[in-house]
Amino acid sequence: MRFGYTIIYVADVPASLAFFGKAFGVPTRFVHEADYGELETGQTALAFAGHHMGAANLPAGYVAADSALVPLGVEIALVTESVAEAHATAVNAGATSIKEPSVKPWGQTVSYVRCPDGTLVELCSPMGD
């Protein structure tokens, strides 16, 4: 068993892909029409699919991240050498600041932002820095 990918169901796949490019500098790797797209995140893909695909895959329903008043209990973590700079760039691109950068007891710097599509993103320094 290996971790293959994460798919986030969103209202507007191209908008989510564009936001991740602008806010986090992560380019788009693949787009299939406007229904599905992947970011260039290395071997394990971070992908977005339209809510209609989520409804087809999960006929009993699901909680859309953009409809929740507070972030869902799931986050995407992006590692960066400058958490403060990345946090400011994301907020300037349209993310909502959830928690400003702070240093954890183990020395890692961490912050949280929420994307316009509802995705919760942790921005963190590499472990051991």
Q: Care to give the gist of this entry?
A:
By secondary structure, the protein is α/β, with parallel strands linked by helices. It contains three helices and eight strands; from the N terminus they run E-H-E-E-E-H-E-H-E-E-E.
Provide the number of structural domains.
Answer: 1
Beta content comes to 25-35%
Residue stretches low in confidence (pLDDT < 50, at least 5 long) are: none
Q: How many helices does DSSP assign?
A: 3
Sheet/helix structural class: alpha/beta
SSE order, one letter for each helix or strand: EHEEEHEHEEE
Report what the structure shows.
There is one protein chain. By secondary structure, this protein is an alpha/beta fold. The chain has a single domain (5-124), classed as 2,3-Dihydroxybiphenyl 1,2-Dioxygenase, domain 1, CATH 3.10.180.10. The protein contains 3 helices and 8 strands, in the order βαβββαβαβββ. A 4-stranded mixed sheet has the order 1-4-3-2. A 4-stranded mixed sheet has the order 5-8-7-6, covered by helices on one side. The longest helix is centred in the N-terminal third of the chain and has 12 residues, at 13-24.
Q: What attributes does this structure have?
A:
single chain, 129 residues, alpha/beta, 4-stranded mixed beta sheet, 3 helices
Write the layout of secondary structure elements.
Elements: E1 5-10, H1 13-24, E2 28-32, E3 36-39, E4 45-50, H2 51-57, E5 76-79, H3 83-92, E6 96-103, E7 109-114, E8 120-124
Parallel strand pairs: 1-4, 5-8
Antiparallel strand pairs: 2-3, 3-4, 6-7, 7-8
